[in-house]
Amino acid sequence: MATNSSILTGSEVIAKPRLLLIDDDHLIVESLSFVLQESFDVLTASTREEAKVLLQRLVDPPFLALVDLGLPPTPHTPEEGFNLITELVAFNPAMKILVLSGQSKRDNIQHAMTLGAIDFVPKPCDVHLLKTRLQHQLMLLDAEQESAAVPQNDKPGIIGHSPAIETLRGLIKQFADTPFPVLIEGESGSGKELVVDYLHNESTRVNQPLLTINCAAFPAELLEAQLFGHAKGAFTGADSAKPGFFEQADKGTLFLDEVGELPLELQAKLLRVLENGEYYRIGETQPRHSNARIVAATNRDLPETVRKGAFRQDLYHRLGVLTIKVPPLRERGEDCLLLLNYFQQLYAGTFEPFTLENEAEQRLLHYAFPGNIRELRNIVIRLGSKYPNTTVKLSQVEAELELAVYIPESDHNDLDRLAERELLHTHNFRLDEKLDSWENRYITVALKNSSGNLSRAARMLGINRTTLYSKIQRLNIEVAPEK
Questions:
Q1: Confidence of residue 406 (pLDDT cuts 50, 70, 90)
Q2: Domains delineated in the chain
Q3: Which residues make beta-bridge pairs with 123?
Q4: Nearest of 192, 143, 170, 161 to residue 336 by alpha carbon
Q5: Helix-helix angle 106-115:372-386, to 10 degrees
Q6: What is the pLDDT confidence band of residue 324, given thresholds at 50, 70 and 90?
Q7: Cβ-contact 71, 39 below 8 angstroms
Q8: What distance in Å separates the CA atoms of residue 243 and residue 165, rounded to the nearest whole number?
Q9: Among 126, 140, 281, 376, which residue has the least CB neighbours within 10 Å?
Q10: What is the mean pLDDT of residues 68-73?
């Protein structure tokens, strides 16, 4: 059973999994903490910031999280909850996130799932049902941990035969044994961590350590100590000297995940290591030297982050000597069906396999998967839990997909982000159809506000009357008689 902590009862040690509960309703927090404490070590936070600070202080972070969507400072909208899900996934991709919220509109549910949540429990909740679902997630975690423990040679490797994946495999082999840094770019959930494993295992460093540090998981002062180590007495609580990850990696590989979150003050120190291998433990004046090969990953647009001044340009160019772009799932064709079968095998001990009717299979093949492989994995888990040992229909598959483009209220006036979301998330997007839709909308509004007067409507739209009449004819817009 996946566990985080232990309690003592007499001579017996009983392990309890750790659960993070984030909700600003104190009554709900108190009542759920009470009913869940027998089975879980419950940690609580009332805001996204509180949860972030709590996680950064934990040596042993939780594998389970219960998240309310309506959190301060905007408790009447789901935006804070969505942002929190994104941050939790970045902090620990293996974390199982269940949404517990009264904001249970279908669009909210589906967007939460796309971001990385694995289940949605509407408020008010049935406590017995909640416990059952939490226990189910622990079973899934056990399956994943057993798979992670399998020797590398027995693992299936990077799954897929699409041209995008064949290109990826070629780059991994080409870059595996070079001493230069590698920057792995790709959308959240696309499988960047797996690429790191294969870069290391295809290299002559395979018998050396592969260490991973998540730059988003630590506050700046603690991250520096984790990376570079510290001398005894360097700060309060430094009772003894401790080596950092650069030192522990030795001649192996050091993976800097979420490198775009690295604080500016640490970026200069990382640049020094990349240029000449030199670094200092906190509290020491004698330089040390690292022989580790650096691999970094990000789902941020680093050039844009550089333009905003949040990431050093020289560090970006130094990290990106060699760059691997991990393709999103929507560019991998039938690989999604191979991955679906893989996940069914992975979780075979938790549910009976299902099959897809042809229309359902075709729908998945043409779905954009905005949440990438992580979203597909969670879809498989939900389908397997709901329809074990049955043939899943098109309507049942579509119930698990985010078919509508979700646009936060803050983005309604941001046409660039609107265009990006529609292009990435809409199946068979057609620019002509979109432009016709916008023309129809503006012409209809102009006609309404001009009481059907074509000349006045044309002036409002900045076109001549003849052009407007042609557009009305082409778009089949009904025109009310002029008043």
A1: low
A2: 5-148 (3.40.50.2300), 163-325 (3.40.50.300), 430-475 (1.10.10.60)
A3: none
A4: 161
A5: 120
A6: very high
A7: no
A8: 38
A9: 126
A10: 94
296 close to 270: Cβ distance less than 8 angstroms? no
Residue type, 341: N
Tokens of 26: 């104190």
Retrieve residue 120's tokens. Answer: 């949605």
| N residues, the chain | 483
Q: What is the pLDDT of residue 61?
A: 84
CB atoms within 10 A of CB 97: 25
Question: What are the pLDDT digits (tens) for 180-197?
Answer: 999 999 999 999 999 999
pLDDT digits (tens, 9 = 90+) for 442-468: 888 888 777 788 888 888 898 988 899
- What pLDDT band is residue 424 in, cutting at 50, 70 and 90? low
What is the residue whose two structure tokens read 């082999």? 173
Within 8 A by CB and 6+ apart from 338, the residues are: 159, 160, 161
